[in-house]
Amino acid sequence: MKQMRSLLAALPDDDLTFLGSSPYVYHCHHFNLFHDQTVDDALGNEQAFAVKSRAAHEASWHLLADLVKSADAVTPAERLEIAAAALPWMGHGRLALLTEKHGGTARGEYLHYGFSWQEKYGSRVRRRHPADAFAAGWAAAATEVAYDLPPGSLRCREHACFACREAACTFEVEGGGDANLDTYVGKETFERFISPATVGQNEDTVRKIAAGLKDFVAGIESDERGLVQGFGVYVTRHLANYYDQTAYDTIHMIEREKPRVTEVIEELFGESGHVCVFYTCGGILASPEWEALVGPPENDPESIVVSCTAIARGLGFGHWSIAEMVPGERLVLQASSNYEAPFYRERYGKSEKPRCYFFANAARAFMQLAHKVDWQERPQLDDALYQSLFKSNLGWDLEMTRCQTRGDEVNEVVVTRRKA
Ligand SMILES: [Zn+2]
Hints:
five-stranded antiparallel sheet, 2 domains, globular, 13 strands, about 50% helix
């Protein structure tokens, strides 16, 4: 979609990407489903849907406003058309918006969450609550932007969902919204909170691979369903603010209301880093595209960690760099920029404790992939392998030693081999 492409922006040295002023990253359906499930587990389905759709609404509103402005779209019909075309470009499926000034309905097909949930779990689990909170928030924001309504005045509920074995997803947009569009975490926020790019070990190799991967993923197009399939996963170009707001709002609610389970929920959001690295980094490493770009992965821990660090940069996760790597023993990974800390600082202020859960746990997963996977054997990256690597056999401890959410210069995690 030309309009989306014209809005692409980056802070290339910091490995961050933006649509207009909205930060975006590439994440796969395994990560997305796990992340949303964690919000559900923490808050219960109903409250979770409200938190997720509100975060989606806030993140989407700014992107849609940028899009409409850059296209000089004046009429509601033009604006709704732009919103309808943007969602498939992001790999989120198709959503027909049948809304007017005071609300209306929307109908989704192949929506990323519901569709991929059904494909991953549908034959084993019966789902009874809708999965497409992101699309719901998008629908509310798109209607507000289309009709110049006060930002945050609408809300949207999903009544039927493909994940619950309905034919399509149906939504109702109505008044009574509570999204807050007062503060916004955009490109300019990132520029305030990130640090100059660090130079890590194997910097030239990491930089070169990341550049090749950035070019590759930027060229990926969605299919006729509005989905993006690649590296054995469904990929989204997703708004980073959605992940941050859902994770941090959830953790803060738990800290206030059920402080005793805070650590469990923090660990679950951290585990999403394992899920991402296993399926996305692993899928990329095992792909023919990677072989063409870099060569086949070898059973060499250092080269796997170098590759994973480059992949993180290539997907827009920020400027991750290797400060120290001792195969079999230890990894010190730093990030002078990432997509977690700027959001936290802008929305919630300075944290008392480190909070880059995704970054820290991804580093641990790098070490597990580097030491426990036989890459020359061409492993099947399926749930069975995930369970064996990350549920019963995770031999690495981690410590978040520095964190920009706390005001430190960089984010830093130290991963060490767990003593028997
Ligand atoms: Zn749905």
